[in-house]
Request: fold
Amino acid sequence: MGKEGKKKYINRLKSFFPLRTKIDETYKKSLEAIQTGKPVAWAMINAWYGDPILRAMDLETVYPENFGAVCAAEGIAESYLNRADADGFPSHLCGYARNCFGYVSRMTKELKGEIPPEAPVGGMPKPIFLLSSNIGCDARYKWFQALGRYLDAPVWVLDMPIPGVKELFREGVYERCIQFIVEELKEFVQFLEDILAMKMDWDRLEKTVHDIEEMNRVWFEINELRKTIPCPMHSRDFWSAMPPSLFLAGRPAETLILYQEMLKEVKDRVDHQISSILTEEKFRLLFSELPPWHSLGVFEKMAERGWNFVIESWGYHPPPPLDLSGISDPLEHIARFSFHFHTAYFKDALEEKEYYGYMGYPLLKFAREYKCDGAFFHLPLTCRSTSTHQLYLQEKMRQKLKIPSMIVNGDIVDLRLFNPTEVIKRMEPFEESMESYRKMREKKS
Amino acid sequence: MPEGNQGITRAKIIYRDRLRRGKELKGEGRKILGYLCLHAPLEMMTALQIVPFRMLGDIDENPTQVDRFLPRAFCPFVRSVFDLSLKGKYDFLDGMILVHSCDAMERTGRIWESVVDHQYFHFMDLPTKVSERHQNFFRESLNDFKKTLEKLTGKELSFEELKKAIASHNEQRGLVKSLYEVTEKVSPKILGSEILQVIGAITSIPVKDGNKLLREVLTEIGRRKSIKLKGPRIFIWGSVLDHPAFLEMIEDLGAHVVIDDLCTGTRGYWADVKLDGDLLGALAYYYLVELRCPRTFKKAPNDGRRKNYLADLEERFGYLREFIKTWKVDGAILQSVKYCDCHGFEIPQVKDFFNSLGIPSLLLEHNYMIADKEILKTRVEAFLEMLRGGVE
Reply:
């Protein structure tokens, strides 16, 4: 964990704490259930594609990506990375995957399937199956496929179509994609019914889907309020509060209530012009991609100088709300919502002739709408999914929006690559850059 | 060796000067579309008299312009090709078809389309799985591609023309297989590095010209003497190798590269597209199911409640047995460019498969550029010596 300064400059939301307590409680109950023999699935983040199904089938789910981040933050990842290297996995592969290979190798080869004692947050027990998808990157399914070396858990891949920006609007393409996803889900349900020897509770699925949609609608509304000046909610609070949405940590119905409380607090801050930093908001920034989980203390240093982080990348945010009131089939709800997550900004992207419709274009849109003065691009070495577009966007933001950015190298698990001291040294020159570009934008408007 | 520009010599010239050949074709009034990967349906372009042109990188050219758009920790092959495009080397193309075969191509494709002003750019998504339903979905994507091609050319892509195009490309597949039949022999008459250049040549000219070239090459080989190398007989597996330097290095050390599983080698030529019935459906089956690339998720058919690792390996790599047995392989070199996730995740499992067959293998990761050849030479040398000594 990064060391935090004694004085705090980020004005954390109070409503985050009961949310955190609820997440921890649910996690603890989940661990207890697993320890009593309840079956466990390992899943990749899947943009609400497979998760509602898992939840409706009452399956305990563990997210190895999340586990990788925790291992990095706890300082345990290095031993697992070294083990993955020794097992022949190239060192450029996703850090979360290599962390997982090392963990599983130790669990199965040395400990006969028992959870390693050093594993943080109770570790990950052996799963009955692995849920992957092609959403996000190739690693998402190649990683779980490679776990076959250690685990006899079958792999299920949920295929998500991702057409091109222009291609999406060709006749029939959108609906064809939706039908495809619905059929994918039907097959997945059949697989689960077989492996769990139980039938899907369709009423429960319908309720789960409804709760997820409502929860995300409120979560979206909270984040819209961050467009206000000064911004009422810092990125630190966003990252802390996003697991119930992204991983369905906690129960959606309970999270909905807690997000509604958070919405009230954020609205109150907007009404009273309360900022999420305790210094004057001098600069509004966008943070691109995964934060350095092990060095989050650096944000306090930045807040001290008046840097308010007001928005993050597309991949962690729910999509704009979608009216699905005319649809009764919960599988179709899931299909439309998840596909909408990927394609919600394609229309705007097409109008601006930007063809990186997801991951790329939304960042331009966010930087504009959240009135950012600068962007902080964190370039994780072993995550190509989150690093590919950043140089391109840096250039686009500067040319098109007159917003400068700083690129900082790091990694999702290798602590050695991110240097907080370097970041702090670069702050002052970057402030000059942000000031200069601000004047350019003012002159232009 | 025959005099004049014929056969293998002509192939090498076309391969090495392929960009010039592309400009010549453009000058002759041909429409040319670029593609990066095997999954682009070539037959559909050929049927409309478009020349499909495989875009390769350049291991001798230092990528510079691409640094504005792509990080350094990224597929060096895609970086190289994109860099050449940014430098105008591919300006003769009328456009590109980019298939979602891997992250590198998909993500770069989005940027490519945004920054390079091609008259035509088609992005084609490709399912990850291979069931009939996925094939049907892909078939519809091919139909979308058909429509944009028809708009580009102002012509209809007829069933008859498509059938003829498939027949020509199938003929090419057969001719390339004939080249590899030569390397089956104990003392082959063609080097693996030469085959790679021949394939590099035929992927930059119209298919009928390519077939003519292949027949020339096969005739020339028929007159050649065997190439005596001391061995061993090597199988190359892995990610894109679009320059013969790597194979030449192995051959200079006395080994024969007799067979490969590369997208610049056998992968594009080992099965035919069916010529009866629904042709788009046949293309969907070929390009999704028949093409062997780690980007496609395959698993053992009875992988229900419990995964059987050996059955899984057999389903995914079992086709390599034929190569090992028929080409009397002594050892395998498993190579991959750095930052290739599809091959990178695959490597330990392919190695497990070769181990299960008792075939020694060497893992090599490289940065694609020419300088890497020397760095890898020592390791290759040691591996070959080990094979020659018969010591595990």
